[in-house]
Amino acid sequence: MKDYLKYKGYIGTVNLSAEDEVFYGKIHGINDVVTFEGESVKKLKNAFEESVDDYLESCEVLNKQAEKTFKGSFNVRVSSELHKKAAFIASKNSISLNDFVKKAISYAITHEDELDDSLAINQ
Fold first, then answer.
1. Are residues 55 and 84 in the same domain?
2. Whether the model pTM is above 0.70
3. Shared domain check, 84 and 56
4. Cβ–Cβ under 8 Å, residues 39 and 46
5. Is residue 49 helix, strand or coil?
């Protein structure tokens, strides 16, 4: 996602409908569907912030826990060979596979500029 909005820890996607001449998006990373739109970038930003505020207020009124955009837990599917190699390296270094994956992700994030173009997130 190259273009996005951030507000109160939430991320909003940014899209353009050339046919309708409107920008639109939705809150990314939650199960609830919360959308917004605007005819200019400024109006889109305002609509996004209003949508986040409305979402949080609605959750409060409904006595529902507002979803965090990312909970810190996710499943990753890899080949059995990659799984085996990662488990071996983790074991060799006396850390859990979970800690190994956290370290690998952290390394990739801190070295994002060095990643090969084929790994670029925006492709």
1. no
2. no
3. no
4. no
5. helix
Number of domains forming the structure of the chain = 2
Question: What is the span of the domain harbouring residue 107?
Answer: 80-119
Query: From CA 46, how far away is CA 38, in angstroms rounded?
Result: 8
20 assigned to some structural domain: yes
Q: How big is the CA angle at 53 (ends 45 and 70), to the nearest 5 degrees?
A: 85
Contacts within 8 Å (CB) and 24+ apart, 72-80: 76/101
56 and 12: one domain? yes
Written as tens digits, the pLDDT of the chain (123 aa) is 468 999 999 999 999 999 999 999 999 989 899 999 999 999 999 999 999 999 999 999 999 989 886 777 788 899 999 999 999 999 999 999 999 999 999 998 888 878 766 565 554
